[in-house]
Amino acid sequence: MRTILSIVIATSALGATAQNSNVVNAYNYMKDGDYAKAAEYIDPATAHETTMGKEKTWRYRGDIYRMIAMSEDANLRGQFPDALQKGIDSYLKANELDIKGDYKVDNMKALGALQGVALNTGNEAFGAKNYDQAIAMYGQSERIAKAFGMVDSNAVFNSALAYETKGDAAMAIQRYQECINIGYNKPEVYRYLASLQKKQGDLAGAITTTQAGRKTHPNDKELMLDEVAFLLEAGRSEEAEVSTKAAVEKDPNNAVLYSVLGSLYDAKANPKDGKALPEAEMMKWYDLAEQSYKSSIEKDPKFFDSYFNIGVLYNNRAAFIYDKIADIKDDAKYNEAKKGADEIYLKAVPYFEKAHELRPDDKPTMQQLKKLYAKTNDTAKYEAMKKLLGE
To answer: For the domain bounded by 274-391, which CATH number is listed?
Structure first.
């Protein structure tokens, strides 16, 4: 028994000595720049009971794999595709074993360097459309930040972008929401989140998100426009009007906002439910819409939508009068009333012409101009519009 026990003790001692030698050899190869050979020696040491509990073993392993992960040698990196993760694992384990904290500063500096590698690698993978790899790398960056007692907001946001781009809307929504929760609440976070919610059929959620963003960023133009657009799509026109007016106060030179306001007034003059308004009330909304469209044009003389919309507004006003006078039997009275309607209708000409100038290929504009030129007996322009329309 004594002989067998002696053999066991001797064998154990030899194993311990071998593992200690592995750590030393790994260190020496690392210093010589032979990182592949260093990795060959250090990995067994991390699995042996003699050396696996030593801070030094894991710190050396972290150093070796950090150098591999940060190497400019693509072949070396390709030989160890998981070098980054192994480096991070190793430093975290070294910190855990460093009870006295002798090497905590060094280990944390090394982890900081690897965090930069993780982010850059994630960005490169994103650029190469390898979104799963990008997400994994951003996750490593977050993991390191957590070891510092911090949150890597950039990694969380980039991860959300990667999930969205790869088509995983549920995870993208979760990660964008996480961005907001951790204080990374830039306007684009709210906008991207709301856009995804809308695409997923959650229009109410998109409105809530956008309104939350507006509270945090009350002067952001894009959030203002998003809120109005979502409210309009939801049929909440009264809220949309209030939001648009508030947005105009914040941004009085925004042509888009005046155009939206004009559209809201225009819609009030022509209710979707088909219920006819008293004429005085209808004309009040038409007048307000006209003023808003003209204000939009004043703010931006090249804003197509307002030129087109004011042209349509004149069409609608004229159409109302044409319908109203249809039953007049007295020719003189009819012609007088029709003359007034024609004047309103023809007020659309310069606006549609400007819209055509801004967007020469817009077919609805050309169709409107063709009708107007027919009305004015302007044969040359009428034929020109027909030709452009391919008729």
So the answer is: 1.25.40.10
